[in-house]
Amino acid sequence: MSESKARRRERFVKLAEKRVNRTLKDLRLIGKLANRTNYVYDEEDVRKIFRALENELKAARARFESNGQEPEPQFTLRD
Description:
Elements: H1 3-32, H2 43-66
């Protein structure tokens, strides 16, 4: 592996580990929103949250498969 490829690989590994670990932490925090003692929500809210997460995960996988980039939509529960 050339020096340039080695550096790019090292940067990828460093950033991937950091970003995946941050995402896993954030997903655990989203799971804590299920506590009905502290929060009020309905099933439609839950569907919207998981639809947004699933769609973004599919889009991320597609970017890896096509080496392309797509726009980043923002999530909202408000109509």
